[in-house]
Amino acid sequence: MERTLEFYEGVLGFPAVVCEMVQPEAGGAIRHAFFDVGQGELLAFMEANDVPGVAADFDAGINRGLGISGGMYHFAFRVADPAELAGKQAELESKGVEVRGIVDHGWCQSIYFRDPNFVQLEYCCLTEALGEEHRSGRLAEGWRRLVRR
Question: Which residue in 12, 26, 56, 100 has the most C-beta neighbors within 10 A?
Fold first, then answer.
C-alpha cells in the first residue's frame, strides 16, 4: 500500500482523498485508499492484513491474478489533447516510469505504463468525437468478428 500511495500521489499527482482502516468481522484489517483521478472519478485500492480467507501473498495485479496477458484489463485516464498526452509521457519518464507510446488507435492516442503492483495504466486523448459507429459500426465490426471466433 505504501508503494501504491507513493505512486498515485507522488508520480501521477492523484491525491488520496480517503484513507481508512476497515475491521472485518472475521478478523484482521483492511487498508482502503481512494484517489481523486479527476473529472469526478475515484480509484480505490485495498490491502488486506491477516484477514481470514485472503492469502498473505495475494497477487494484486489484476491480470496476473486472473492468469491472463499483462494488458488485458487496465485503467485509462483521459487527457484533453495530444499535447497533454505528450506532456504526461515526458513527466512520467522524468520520474523514472517506463512508458510505451504514443500509440495511435485512429479514434484516440494513448500511452501505457504500469503501477508498482504491475497494473497497466493508460493516458488517452480522443482524436475524434465518439458516436454510434464506435459501438456498432465500422470499429465494432472487427471486434464482433473476433468474438465470434
Answer: 12
Who's near 75: CB < 8 A, 6+ residues apart? 43, 119, 120, 121, 122
Backbone angles phi, psi at 21, to 5 degrees: -115, 125
Query: Is 19 contained in some domain?
Result: yes
pTM, entire model: 0.81
Note whether residue 68 is domain-resident: no
Q: Are residues 39 and 89 in the same domain?
A: no
110: domain CATH number?
3.10.180.10
Give the domain extent around 5: 1-55
Is the distance from CB of 49 to CB of 31 less than 8 angstroms? yes
Q: What is the radius of gyration, based on Cα positions, of the chain? A: 18
Instruction: Report how many domains make up the chain.
Output: 2
Q: What pLDDT, in 10s, does the model give residues 71-121?
A: 778 999 999 999 999 999 999 999 999 999 899 988 899 999 999 988 899
Quote the cell numbers at residue 13. 499527482
